[in-house]
Specification:
With about 290 residues, the chain is an alpha/beta fold. It has 12 helices and 11 strands.
Length: about 290
């Protein structure tokens, strides 16, 4: 593992961008299922607090779509200069882009609302490519040399999309790829910080987009975390069981811990609602 990659792994766990639960207390997901880890890639901005503060800032800035990029880019560039975790993430990303994608094979860098912008704006600045700021409603603005214009026509230009995370690639399919296509461009590449390995790269291939990732969420990443002492043997064993069969992991956990869902129903409303969803979906009754 290179020194930069080693620091990236450290940053993922130090900032809790990848957060692993204790072996006896899996997380409740919004789907009503349980699992051993959460991923919040944007915490690589330096910390959870800093990342959430930037999200709040973005929520204000995006109300003025045209000026959003120019106001936001100064914030992320300042953080790049001052935060070693964020700087290493960006530097590692750029190094991997340069190794994987010919510089002259893309004309623009794009990023989608909101978390993509943590990373795409800095990369576009450092690589000297104009940035396409894409909003969820497919509105898009091109930022170049300090000026912003509404995206109208890309004239068959090629685009590299930078994202924080890819799961099923639903945002790409719904908004990011169509926004570029409708302007006459072609999203040729995608480069993400983390690929959750849940079918997103396969969908991108169907959409004609070459998919790249700094980190793939598989057993290897957690083995490295174990070797570095970021997680313990019990957590690692739990993760490997989950990755082998998420549904079987859940069924077995409920059987071995019959009071877990009962306690969840008595917990805070967010936890209780997810436990109720588990029961209503019929999944719990399989146990």
């Amino acid at each position: 593992m290179s020194k930069a990659a080693d620091k990236l792994i450290e940053g993922l766990f130090k900032t809790k961008a990848i957060r692993v639960c204790p072996a006896d207390s899996p997380f409740w997901y919004t789907s009503g299922k349980i699992g051993p880890y959460y991923i919040n890639t944007h915490f690589l901005y330096g910390s959870e607090e800093k990342a959430n503060a930037l999200l709040s800032e973005i929520d204000v800035l995006k109300e003025d779509k045209k000026n959003c990029t120019s106001n936001l880019i100064s914030l992320v560039l300042e953080n790049y200069s001052n935060d070693p975790i964020f700087k290493n993430t960006i530097d590692t990303l750029i190094e991997n882009i340069e190794e994987s994608i010919p510089y002259n094979s893309f004309d623009y860098i794009s990023g989608g609302e909101r978390r993509d912008w943590f990373f795409s704006l800095v990369v576009s600045k450092l690589l000297g490519k104009p940035h396409i700021t894409v909003f969820k409603d497919k509105d898009a603005f091109i930022y170049e040399n300090g000026k912003t214009e509404k995206m109208v026509s890309l004239e068959n230009a090629s685009v590299l999309h930078i994202a924080d995370l890819i799961t099923s690639a639903s945002s790409y399919e719904r908004a990011w790829v169509p926004a570029i296509k409708e302007a006459g461009g072609h999203m040729k590449y995608s480069f993400v910080i983390i690929d959750r390995m849940q079918g997103g790269s396969e969908l991108l291939k169907e959409l004609g987009v070459a998919s790249h990732a700094l980190v793939k969420v598989n057993e290897d990443i957690f083995k490295k975390a174990l070797d570095k002492g970021y997680i313990n043997e019990e957590q690692y064993a739990m993760i490997t069981r989950y990755m082998e069969d998420p549904d079987r992991f859940m069924i077995n956990f409920f059987k071995e811990n019959p009071k877990f869902i009962e306690n969840a129903l008595k917990s805070d409303e967010k936890t209780a609602s997810r436990a109720r969803l588990c029961i209503e979906s019929g999944f719990y009754h399989q146990c």
